[in-house]
Design a protein that fits this description.
Blueprint lengths: L5 H12 L12 H12 L1 H4 L15 H6 L12 H6 L19 H12 L30 H12 L10 H13 L5 H13 L3 H14 L1 H14 L17 H12 L4 H10 L8 H6 L16 H21 L18 H11 L26 H35 L2 H5 L9 E2 L9 E6 L2 E6 L4 E5 L5 E5 L18
Antiparallel strand pairs: 1-2, 2-3, 4-5
Helix pairs in contact: 1-7, 2-6, 8-9, 8-10, 9-10, 11-12, 15-16
Length: 493
């Protein structure tokens, strides 16, 4: 999440796009120089795939290659690999002619030099801790204003190129705005840059000031956040079956806000993977764990609930591996990984963490699939929190009042009579009034809009002991009294 100067980012991308040839004095690196040759020409038959492996030989592992004497470190003339790639006989040469792959003379010499130097292997680059390289020496030192510039210029000079002329400030303003915010610059911002540019002793200072303004814009988080949301598989629908609306935009807003707040990456990680498990967690940390709710879900009746739960867990496990580890852990659902040091046990150990969830197998085709939390608008958060405390305080007061009044209520209840309070019941302008106090017979007397009416019942009812009256009307299951014209109003009235 740390911010970097866009010029540095673009420069680094450009620098890696140019590869200088490995000279006689250049130190050979396995990942940069050797592995690409072996991967292209050798690993299909002598690599990690046991089903396709020929002669039981592995060249992707140093110990296995040495044990088979394909490589004898320091002694290329005794190494079978060198002997076979330099062979003239079609039956001996590697790669075999039928593969339509051919090593160039430079590649053969490079492999020979590598073995002579000790045939050192390297782990995949993603497992190696980055090491800051020395800044290269260049001829045109005046062009270098940042250490990254030296790397770019060194590559350019190595292939006989010269830098293009520096762009004018208006062009730089447009490029920077598009790169940082994803939007073209506001005319006023461009004019401000031009004033600073022509008024400053060093134009770089004006440019840095302009970059700072762009990075303070809320569009910074929106632009950067959309890349993260793609990786997090964010969507506003469920993705399967009817693909109905899913109310997830609060997580999207959290991601944008995290970028705009420059949230440290370790906290950015923790809150998304386990924000709902943190002690004294905040509402925002709850929202951040919505990362785990961005998976596809379904409510299709023909699916097997347990299978859906397994697929949800698998999705979360694989996504974490892709996004945070940069690894295709999904291979390990069926077998140990062929290329990376990952096992099936690793996969299902991580999956066990995500299997501890209360999310159901079916999403219900609703926008808020449980478990959910209520998220008020950010501008309403303070009042929302205050109301919660006020309600709790009022509940405490109500409970205290009930306790205080219990004795007085008991004394009143001991002397209270139904007839004393019957007159307090409303009796005018009633749409329907049914006392149900006849106590016997099969006739029920009603008032509908102030007019008396009698309903005769032949079955489905009984008179039972009452609490207010001596006998109370009781309707038996399945029976009904219909007064269709009473209370004739719509559901929204």
């Amino acid at each position: 999440m740390k911010r970097h100067c866009p010029r540095g980012l673009l420069a680094a991308t450009f620098a890696f796009g140019l590869v200088a040839p490995v000279g006689a004095q250049t130190k050979i690196e396995y990942n940069r120089d050797i592995r690409p040759i072996l991967a292209e020409n050798c690993f299909a038959c002598h690599g990690p795939d046991s089903a396709a492996r020929k002669a039981g030989l592995r060249l992707d592992q140093r110990d296995a290659a040495i044990a088979a004497e394909a490589i004898v470190p320091g002694k290329p003339e005794q190494s079978a690999l060198v002997q076979r790639i330099f062979a003239v006989d079609a039956a001996q040469v590697m790669p075999p002619p039928k593969t339509n792959k051919t090593l160039t003379a430079e590649q053969k010499e490079l492999l020979k030099r590598w073995i002579a130097a000790g045939a050192e292997y390297q782990m995949h680059w993603s497992y190696l801790a980055p090491v800051r390289p020395p800044v290269p020496t260049v001829k045109n030192t005046a062009w270098v204003r940042h250490p990254i510039d030296a790397f770019i210029l060194a590559k350019l000079e190595a292939v006989g190129l010269t830098p293009a002329p520096e762009a004018d400030p208006r062009t730089l303003a447009r490029r920077l705005s598009l790169d940082i915010t994803g939007l073209p610059p506001e005319p006023a911002e461009v004019e401000a840059l031009l004033r600073d540019w022509h008024g400053a002793a060093k134009p770089d200072a004006a440019l840095e000031k302009y970059i700072d303004r762009l990075m303070e814009s809320p569009h910074w988080g929106e632009h950067r956040g959309r890349y993260w949301l793609d990786a997090a598989r964010y969507a506003d629908t469920h993705g399967l079956h009817f693909d109905n609306y899913r109310e997830m935009y609060s997580y999207r807003d959290w991601v944008i806000d995290a970028f705009n707040r420059n949230l440290p990456f370790d906290q950015f990680t923790i809150e998304q993977l386990a924000g709902d498990l943190l002690p004294n967690r905040t509402l925002d940390q709850h929202i951040a764990s919505g990362f785990n709710r961005c998976n596809l879900s379904t409510n299709e009746g023909g699916t097997i609930p347990e299978e859906n739960l397994v697929l949800y867990t698998r999705d979360r496990t694989e996504t974490v591996a892709w996004v945070w580890l940069g690894l295709t852990l999904n291979c390990c659902t069926c077998h140990d990984h062929k290329f990376d040091p990952l096992t099936m046990r690793d996969f299902y150990s991580m999956a066990a963490f995500f299997n501890n969830t209360t999310v159901g197998a079916m999403d219900g085709n609703v926008r808020d699939t449980p478990p959910v939390i209520f998220v008020p608008r950010r501008e309403d958060r303070a009042r929302w929190d205050a109301i919660g405390k006020e309600i709790a305080a009022l509940h405490t007061q109500i409970a205290a009042r009930k306790q205080e009044a219990r004795a007085s209520f008991a004394a009143w209840l001991a002397t209270a009579k139904p007839d004393q309070h019957a007159a307090a019941a409303p009796s005018t302008a009633l749409r329907l009034h049914a006392r149900l106090s006849e106590g016997k017979g099969n006739a029920i007397h009603l008032d509908v809009d102030g007019k008396p009416r009698t309903i005769t019942l032949n079955s489905g009812f009984a008179w039972v002991a009452g609490k207010v009256e001596a006998k109370a009307f009781s309707l038996q299951p399945g029976a009904a009294i219909e007064v269709a014209d009473a209370g004739d109003f719509e559901k929204d009235q």
